[in-house]
Amino acid sequence: MSTPHQLITTPLTEGLLRGALDLERTEHGLLPHRLPARARAQNTDGQLAMAEAQPAGVRLVLRTRATVVELDTLPTKRVYVGAPARPDGVYDLLVDGRPAGSATVSGGNTLTIDMSTGSAEALPGPVGTLRFDGLSEGVKDLEIWLPHNETTELVALRTDAPVEPVPDRGRPVWLHHGSSISHGSDAASPTTTWPALAAAHGGVELINLGFGGSALLDPFTARALRDTPADLISVKLGINLVNTDAMRLRAFTPAVHGFLDTIREGHPTTPLLVVSPLLCPIHEDTPGPSAPDLGALSEGKLSFRATGDPAETAAGKLTLGVIRAELARIVEQRAAEDPHLFHLDGRELYGEADSAELPLPDALHPDAATHRRIGERFAELAFRAGGPLAGTAR
Predict the structure, then answer these.
(1) pLDDT in tens, 116-145
(2) Alpha helices in 102-156 (DSSP H)
């Protein structure tokens, strides 16, 4: 076996990555994107631009005898003015599908965000190195899951033995779209976001198009779903439409139909599950928009509150209750002609009893324990035999 001073550099290529829809060559290396270039060109929102470049569900997948793996990366770390410092993004290592370690990379760029004004300042920083060593000898499949909440440019890959892509395992590909909860906000690590946990339980290959703050029925997102090969599809809709106060009921209903129509253009008979919002007490009966709780922020805590007026629902403002009822109605209507379309009430994943036991720490996002519960429940409800996403290996 080679010594650590004789590491082999392997070019970072599309064949070694899973979970990304596009790879951008930068001055430093390779930046994974979860929206294709054409979609990014049609987007003007900084929040979505940041979210889709955070590699939730993106992983390096290698077959090798290596006992040492080094990965140079350039992360972009977020700092929120007045809030506690965020921990460095976590990289999870799986060996032959089993957890085998986690690590972080220091340094990198910094994006400082002032939530009270909406301003942001970017500062450049240095490349850092991730290292996993002491791995078992012999041929094995390694997966390095990139931080789900930290933009990560891949700069260089080094190992003490050659690597090659892992052949297709024949597992169904599950394509999922949702909000920051699907993106993995406040999960402990990239393999413990609820979609990653559900995928592991269900034996499927995940492509995660969960975008923090950005599940807004954008047509370019629907086209990305339409054009991405998949065996199983789910879309979790609602919370961002409320907390951004993006539209009224009059616009919501045709927008949902259009979103589903577009997906069906590329996947006419693929099992498609529409998931309504999880329980979120601040928005059950109160419209958006959401806003940072400045009182909590002054105490160093990040929390949110609903600022809408419940009386405005009569004029078409959206609440989670309104959205759940309308999504159920839409799916029931469409399922009469689309036997592969299904609905799941999000409160079956996280409902009132769960909220009492595991309240949302910032009033919007689940913690690590809640991600695990949601992932396990989704797998049981969706991937079980007879479930809406009970796919078979290809």
Answers:
(1) 777 888 889 999 999 999 999 999 999 999
(2) none
Per the structure block, which two tokens stand in for 377? 């429940």
Strand order in the sheet with 272-275: 205-210, 173-178, 232-236, 272-275, 341-344
User: Prior bond to 289 cis, omega within 30?
Assistant: yes
Q: Which of 216, 244, 66 is nearest to 141 (CA)?
A: 66
User: Rounded to whole angstroms, how far apart are CA atoms 16 and 18?
Assistant: 7
In the numeric block, which tokens belong to residue 106? 């220091």
* 0.85 exceeded by pTM: yes
pLDDT in tens, 23-72: 999 999 999 999 999 999 999 999 999 999 999 999 999 999 999 999 99
Asked whether the beta carbons of 349 and 337 are under 8 A apart, the reply is no
- Pure H helices in the chain: 37-41, 46-52, 180-183, 194-202, 219-227, 239-243, 249-266, 294-298, 320-335, 352-357, 368-378
